[in-house]
Write a structure and sequence with these properties.
Pfam families: DHquinase_I, SDH_C, Shikimate_DH, Shikimate_dh_N. One of its GO terms (molecular function) is shikimate 3-dehydrogenase (NADP+) activity. This is Shikimate dehydrogenase (NADP(+)). InterPro entries: Aldolase_TIM (IPR013785), Aminoacid_DH-like_N_sf (IPR046346), DHquinase_I (IPR001381), NAD(P)-bd_dom_sf (IPR036291), SDH_C (IPR041121), Shikimate_DH-bd_N (IPR013708), Shikimate_DH_fam (IPR022893), Shikm_DH/Glu-tRNA_Rdtase (IPR006151). By secondary structure, this protein is of the alpha/beta class. It has 3 domains: 70 residues, no CATH class; 126 residues, Rossmann fold (3-Layer(aba) Sandwich), CATH 3.40.50; 144 residues, NAD(P)-binding Rossmann-like Domain (Rossmann fold, 3-Layer(aba) Sandwich), CATH 3.40.50. The chain contains 13 helices and 12 strands. Strand 7, helix 9 and strand 8 form a beta-alpha-beta unit. The longest helix is centred in the C-terminal third of the chain and has 17 residues. It binds NADP nicotinamide-adenine-dinucleotide phosphate.
Length: 350
């Protein structure tokens, strides 16, 4: 569709090129970049005359539609599902406040390799990567940062403007691990200056996907003893074969309590909107943990965190990880320092 609208400009034939549905949302926003004649916006959310129409408010306030032009660089979050992601909200406001000529989109993608091959021009300058594409994305990059390679998952892809090559990074592990360390330090009143408070702790990771690998790798780096519990036991075992530690099936986690004061990190999507009543571990088993972290950040207070707090554990929300991983991505996307205060202010509303 973008090829058609761009060529229509050469032949001076105005073309409205709109693709329906959630996958077509980018055609409705990027028509301003690729020469489409107009786009449609609805006055009210859900009151549409065709599937996938955004509201005028989102076009103007979320995507900064009036600022999009031929030179605007395109960024976006590749995922499935992806509509829940707050990344566009965060980056578009930050781009606007820094005067950076970019737009950040939700990109509902089925196959990350075929997506990256299709959108191969330097106009598509960078991507965030989320569920379930972080591991497949490693193979799609021309070069992968050594840490991301060890983790086996990429959450940030940059397209070099000189030759369109793709570079993969992982900013998840720093975001999550520093949030957990801050949580533990808070409980120690900052008395553990220097060494990581994770050193020597038993650190249980639920999940062995992209976020699970990042957390497990980061905890290991900080000197924790790592246990991986996953629905598919073989994936947990594969991960422990790489980084060391013990593998469990998710079903065995309920009765796993070799010691008290453990750290628990949920890195599955269990409990994420809309299934907010779900939780990966029964409440009674939470009493063995001193800190519980949940990578899920929609909602901010998951059932797991609520029950952990009721059991007396320190809780750390996925929102902290989200903000932390976004700092690194923003700096790679723009070459500018991340507006940390602005990020916190934007996310404090959610
Ligand atoms: N806060 C943040 O900044 C942040 C950053 C990254 C990710 N996240 C969140 O972390 C979650 C995982 O993301 P990801 O990229 O790591 O995904 P992923 O690579 O697809 O991995 C998903 C993991 O969750 C497990 N899983 C999925 N559904 C499950 C279910 N119903 N019951 C039991 N286990 C289930 C999978 O187990 P199997 O191996 O058995 O399939 C796998 O271990 C998502 O909710 C994402 O939003 C948050």
């Amino acid at each position: 569709m973008f090829h058609i609208t761009v060529h229509s400009q050469v032949s001076s034939v105005p073309v409205i090129g709109i693709v329906m549905g959630e996958r077509g949302l980018i055609s409705r926003i990027l028509c301003a970049k690729f020469g489409g004649f107009l786009t449609f916006g609805t006055l009210e959310s859900g009151v549409v005359s065709a599937p996938g129409q955004p509201t005028i408010k989102d076009l103007l306030d979320l995507y900064n539609f009036r600022s999009i032009g031929p030179d605007t660089k395109v960024f976006g979050i590749i995922g499935k599902p992806v509509g829940h992601s707050k990344s566009p909200l965060l980056y578009n406001q930050a781009f606007k406040s820094a005067g950076f000529n970019g737009v950040f989109l939700h990109l509902l993608v089925d196959d990350v390799a075929s997506f990256l091959q299709t959108y191969s021009s330097t106009d598509f300058a960078g991507f965030s990567c989320t569920i379930p594409h972080k591991e497949a994305a490693v193979k799609c990059c021309d070069e992968v940062d050594p840490v991301a390679k060890s983790i086996g998952a990429v959450n940030c892809i940059i397209r070099r403007q000189s030759d369109a090559k793709l570079f993969g990074y992982n900013t998840d592990y720093v975001g999550a691990i520093s949030a957990i360390e801050d949580g533990l330090r808070g409980s120690h009143n900052g008395s553990s200056a220097g060494a990581s408070p994770l050193n020597g702790k038993l650190f249980v990771v639920i999940g062995a996907g992209g976020a699970g690998k990042a957390l497990a790798y980061g905890a290991k780096e900080k000197g924790a003893r790592v246990v991986i519990a996953n629905r598919t036991y073989d994936r947990a075992r594969e991960l422990t074969e790489t980084i060391g530690g013990e593998a469990l099936s998710l079903a065995d986690l309920e009765n796993f309590h070799p010691e008290d004061g453990m750290v628990l990190a949920n890195t599955t999507s269990i409990g994420m909107q809309p299934k907010i009543d779900e939780t990966p571990i029964p409440k009674h088993a939470l009493k063995h943990y001193s800190l519980v972290f949940d990578a899920v950040y929609t909602p901010k207070m998951t059932r797991l965190l609520r029950e952990a707090e009721e059991c007396g554990a320190i809780i750390v929300s996925g929102m902290e990880m989200f903000i932390g991983q976004a700092y690194g991505q923003y700096e790679r996307f723009t070459g500018l320092p991340a507006p940390k205060e602005l990020f916190r202010k934007i996310m404090s509303k959610y």
